[in-house]
């Protein structure tokens, strides 16, 4: 019993510290966060307390109002903190990968499955909606990356639907804050075992590529690759 109490006591400061850090991060992008939260809490509590006086139960409605004020404040704080976080991540390299890491259960994500010299990148997520390729970078350059990756997916898992989206704020692009909701709205067409089988096939492809022997250094000029296998002695 003592061990459980000690663990709970140790966890509480950690949560409070995390909330404080989140508030500081949010306040950098949202200067009015303190006033907004105070207004939400006070108005919610005041409304219920006023109703309590009107019906003759100020104590009960006051307690209920206090609890609901705390809940409303927490909801507003969470939404504004999320908005501030996305605002700071917008346009940063790897921002889409961070969103995919927190998309939720049922999805397997692999960051940077394709990349070019300009650091435009394509990430991959596999779930019941199929395969989703998420690209971030220059819209014109990432289209060729997406096309090549979709062609590769069609060769390996031809029976699995492949979706693609480009992160950005332009026409036909998906804002960073809407990547998760966009993916979750995709129709679910695969079963759990099919998702597992798809992941296994993609993993096998990755293992095969990583185990392929690659030449060290440039190939000598004039050297030709053999046309056939080793000759039998």
Structure at a glance:
The protein is an alpha+beta fold and 233 residues long. The chain is 58% helix and 12% strand.
Poorly predicted sequence stretches spanning 5 or more consecutive residues: 6-11, 207-233
Sketch the major β-sheet: 4 strands, mixed
Count the DSSP helices.
7
How many domains in all? 2
Radius of gyration: 26 Å
Rounded mean pLDDT is 78
Q: What features would you describe in this structure?
A:
This protein is of the alpha+beta class and 233 residues long. Helix content is 58%, strand content 12%. It has seven helices and four strands. The protein has a four-stranded mixed sheet, sandwiched between helices. The longest helix is centred in the N-terminal third of the chain and has 32 residues, at 58-89. It starts with a helix and ends in a 22-residue tail after the last helix. 19% of the residues are buried. Residues 6-11 and 207-233 have low confidence and may be disordered.
């Amino acid at each position: 019993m003592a061990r459980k109490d000690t663990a709970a006591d140790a966890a509480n400061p950690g949560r409070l510290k995390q909330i404080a850090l989140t508030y500081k991060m949010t306040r950098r992008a949202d200067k009015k966060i303190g006033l907004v939260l105070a207004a939400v809490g006070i108005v919610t509590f005041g409304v219920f307390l006023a109703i309590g006086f009107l019906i003759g139960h100020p104590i009960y409605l006051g307690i209920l109002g206090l609890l609901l004020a705390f809940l409303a404040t927490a909801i507003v704080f969470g939404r504004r903190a999320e908005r501030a976080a996305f605002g700071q991540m917008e346009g940063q390299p790897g921002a889409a990968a961070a969103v995919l890491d927190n998309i939720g259960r049922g999805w397997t994500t692999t960051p940077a499955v394709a990349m070019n010299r300009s650091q435009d990148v394509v990430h991959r997520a596999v779930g019941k909606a199929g395969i989703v390729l998420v690209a971030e970078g220059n819209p014109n350059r990432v289209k060729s990356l997406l096309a090549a990756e979709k062609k590769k997916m069609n060769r390996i898992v031809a029976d699995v639907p492949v979706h693609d989206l480009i992160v950005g704020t332009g026409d036909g692009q998906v804002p960073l804050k809407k990547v998760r909701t966009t993916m979750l709205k995709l129709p679910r067409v695969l079963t759990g075992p099919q998702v597992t089988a798809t992941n296994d096939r993609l993993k096998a492809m990755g293992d095969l590529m990583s185990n392929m022997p690659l030449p060290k250094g440039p190939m000598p000029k004039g050297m030709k690759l053999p046309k056939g296998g080793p000759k039998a002695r």
